[in-house]
């Protein structure tokens, strides 16, 4: 299918906390279907940027658009999520006592209170989606295992799977490979790159080897604005970027 135009458009966005500019005239455009990595030293504003996109933090100035139709600054957090913006925080928060399958099932329920009766009444297309997602996250064989016995990496994939259930258009992922083994990192790289094209993915990550392995385009944040943008080779050879990282 043909995609065009940005899925996310942020222009001249600023936000201050007690007079300190955490985000300072930030301009960021994410294309539809793109996989983008955001890097930058601690305090660069990466978390605050994600908070602004999801509506958790309201900027003081600027504009934030989702596609060409949705002005995110006029919307609250739940409504923004409903547009198809999913966020994966660093720590996995799966339901350990439920099976892998049940976790995905629960993610499909928009009203979590109806969960206990869901299995019996589940629509066929939900089952199909669960099968698709199990395949994508590589947990088919563990579908009936309680999530509590999964490895750290498997829990992260399950949580990404839970977000994928609703077919988000933009997935925001915070440090997906922190604490993972090399093998789990490779699998995560495969998973995230396989999502790109179908949805847009923005990954905040500190592991430069991992960023290099997945991203065609990297944005470097520093002091709340974009310091450099381009391929990993381009940004890692940028003297300004080198200075910021060596000075950390
Ligand atoms: P990063 O995720 O890149 O490490 P953050 O977005 O967490 O950076 O933080 C950017 C800056 O804004 C930091 O200096 C941080 O201390 C400050 N900051 C973030 N959130 C708040 C807040 N709610 N109140 C005060 N200062 C904040």
Key traits:
single chain, alpha/beta, Rossmann fold, six-stranded mixed beta sheet, 10 helices, 25% strand, transport, ATP binding, ABC_AA/LPS_Transport
Q: Can you describe this structure in just a few lines?
A:
The chain has 248 residues and is α/β, with parallel strands linked by helices. The chain has 10 helices and 10 strands.
Structure, explained:
This protein is 36% helix and 25% strand. The protein is α/β, with parallel strands linked by helices and 248 residues long. It has a domain at 6-87 and 172-246: Rossmann fold, CATH 3.40.50. It has a 6-stranded mixed beta sheet with strand order 6-7-8-3-9-10, with helices on both faces. Helix 3 crosses helix 5 (124-137), helix 3 (100-108) packs parallel to helix 6 and helix 5 runs antiparallel to helix 6 (152-164). The longest helix is centred in the middle third of the chain and has 14 residues, at 124-137. 37% of the residues are buried. Adenosine-5'-diphosphate binds at residues 17, 22, 40, 42-48.
């Amino acid at each position: 299918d043909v995609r065009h135009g940005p899925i996310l458009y942020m222009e001249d966005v600023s936000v201050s906390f007690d007079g300190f500019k955490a985000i300072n005239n930030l301009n960021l455009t994410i294309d539809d279907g793109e996989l983008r990595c955001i890097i930058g030293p601690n305090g660069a504003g990466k978390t605050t940027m994600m908070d602004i996109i999801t509506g958790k933090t309201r900027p003081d100035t600027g504009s934030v658009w989702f596609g060409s139709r949705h002005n995110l600054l006029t919307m609250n957090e739940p409504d923004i999520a409903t547009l198809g913006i999913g966020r994966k925080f660093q720590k996995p928060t799966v339901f350990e006592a439920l099976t892998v399958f049940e976790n995905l099932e629960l993610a499909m329920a928009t009203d979590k209170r109806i969960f206990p009766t869901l299995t019996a009444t589940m629509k066929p297309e939900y089952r199909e989606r669960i099968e698709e997602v199990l395949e994508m996250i590589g947990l088919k064989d563990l579908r009936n295992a309680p999530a509590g016995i999964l490895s750290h990496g498997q829990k992260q994939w399950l949580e990404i799977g839970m977000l994928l259930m609703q077919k988000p258009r933009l997935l925001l992922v915070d440090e997906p490979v922190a604490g993972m083994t090399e093998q789990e990192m490779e699998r995560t790289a495969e998973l995230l790159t396989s999502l790109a094209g179908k949805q847009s993915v923005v990954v905040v990550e500190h592991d430069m080897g991992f960023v290099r392995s997945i991203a065609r385009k990297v944005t470097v944040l520093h002091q709340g604005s974009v310091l450099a943008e381009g391929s990993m080779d381009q940004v890692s050879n940028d003297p300004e970027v080198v200075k910021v990282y060596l000075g950390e």
